[in-house]
Design brief:
By secondary structure, this protein is mainly alpha-helical. It has a domain of 230 residues. 59% of the residues lie in helices and 7% in strands. It is built from ten helices and five strands, in the order ααααββαααβββααα. β3 and β4 form a beta hairpin. α2 runs antiparallel to α5, α5 packs across α6 and α7 runs antiparallel to α8. The relative contact order is 0.11. About 22% of the residues have low confidence. It is found in: Cell membrane. InterPro entries: Trypano_VSG_B_N_dom (IPR025932). VSG forms a coat on the surface of the parasite. The trypanosome evades the immune response of the host by expressing a series of antigenically distinct VSGs from an estimated 1000 VSG genes. This is Variant surface glycoprotein (VSG, atypical). One of its GO terms (cellular component) is plasma membrane.
């Protein structure tokens, strides 16, 4: 009986632990997971453009450096060719955006900078979320020293490797870009209040009304980017790197279409020349056929001539035997007269 009670108590204890454990171990949501994936898609798109441009240069021998420069303008900012040359503001919210006081700061200058604003952790009193941008990301690159180019470069290298995708090749089309733009627009939230006016926010905790993207987590501060309202009144046309990327995709698509048109025209020309030189009913083939006909006719004529000659010179066997008899008779007559 005692053993039964102990066994029952053990079972109840295990069951209680199983009921309590899921509640205590509920994993915290991944902050900015969707936003990270969306911006990663744009990073992958710029990589595809770069690969396509290299392919054009290898095939045509024409320099496309002016277009490759536009790719780096999208990623790092106008006139900045590499992450190590980027300039960072003294405070994070001056790069990522804030809309307080007399002056507003906006994000959207460079794709890489917006990605870091969404995924860089901040040390200090306001703890970072357990998972930021993707599960298991716990690294900090001295985020409190925001102005350090080395720290920002280390974060970019980590995020860029996470963004790399395989399987998709070739330059992106305008249709593909527009689909990605719509996905970005769907995640950008408009904010409007009497004190701070209208602005757009991307990332951060959705339930809060954020105005300062400094990496801290309060009711007004968050890990986010702030964009100005676009000139068309929408929530994306104020993003500088997005507008540059759209123009770049259009230009690359036009060049690709032009190159394909030239290649098709060249192929048609080659096919035409091939048909003219060696195709059916071409002069070359007619000449070849004439030579073959002439050779056939000559062969037939020679064969006929030889046959006719054979008929004239060669006599039947009966005639040949008759001649032999005459000669033998002549010899016998000669010998008879000689000895008589």
């Amino acid at each position: 009986m005692t053993m039964c009670k102990k066994l029952l108590g053990f079972i109840v204890g295990v069951a209680s632990m199983m009921m309590i454990t899921p509640v205590s171990s509920v994993e915290e949501e991944i902050v900015n997971e969707g936003e990270f994936k969306t911006l990663c898609d744009f990073v992958s798109l710029t990589q595809r453009i770069n690969e396509s441009l290299r392919g054009m240069e290898e095939k045509s021998g024409v320099s496309v450096s002016f277009l490759q420069k536009k790719v780096t303008d999208v990623l790092f900012g106008t006139g900045i060719g590499d992450v190590s040359k980027m300039k960072w503001q003294p405070h994070r919210d001056m790069d990522c955006g804030s809309n307080t006081g007399n002056r507003a700061f906006w994000a959207g200058e460079a794709l890489m900078k917006d990605l870091l604003c969404l995924c860089e952790r901040t040390d200090g009193l306001h703890s970072s979320p357990e998972h930021l941008c993707y599960r298991g990301r716990t690294k900090r690159h001295n985020a409190d020293n925001w102005q350090s180019p080395t720290n920002r470069k280390n974060t970019w290298n980590e995020l860029q490797n996470k963004c790399k995708k395989g399987g998709i090749e070739g330059a992106p089309t305008r249709t593909e870009f527009q689909d990605m733009r719509k996905q970005l627009e769907a995640g950008i939230k408009k904010r409007n209040d009497s004190q701070h006016g209208e602005y757009c926010i991307y990332g951060g905790e959705k339930a809060k009304t954020l105005r300062i993207c400094d990496g801290r987590r309060t009711e007004t501060n968050g890990i986010c980017v702030l964009y100005p309202r676009g000139p068309d009144g929408d929530n994306a046309s104020g993003i500088e790197w997005l507008n540059k990327l759209e123009r770049l995709v259009k230009n690359v698509e036009k060049i690709n279409q032009s190159n394909h048109g030239d290649m098709d025209a060249e192929e048609d020309t080659n096919n035409t020349n091939s048909n003219t030189g060696t195709g059916e009913n071409s002069p070359a083939e007619r000449s070849h056929e004439s030579r073959e006909n002439d050779e056939t006719q000559n062969t037939q004529a020679t064969t006929t001539s030889e046959t006719q000659t054979g008929l004239i010179t060669a006599r039947p066997p009966e005639e040949q035997k008759s001649s032999v008899k005459i000669i033998l008779q002549f010899v016998w007559v000669f010998l008879f007269l000689l000895f008589v």
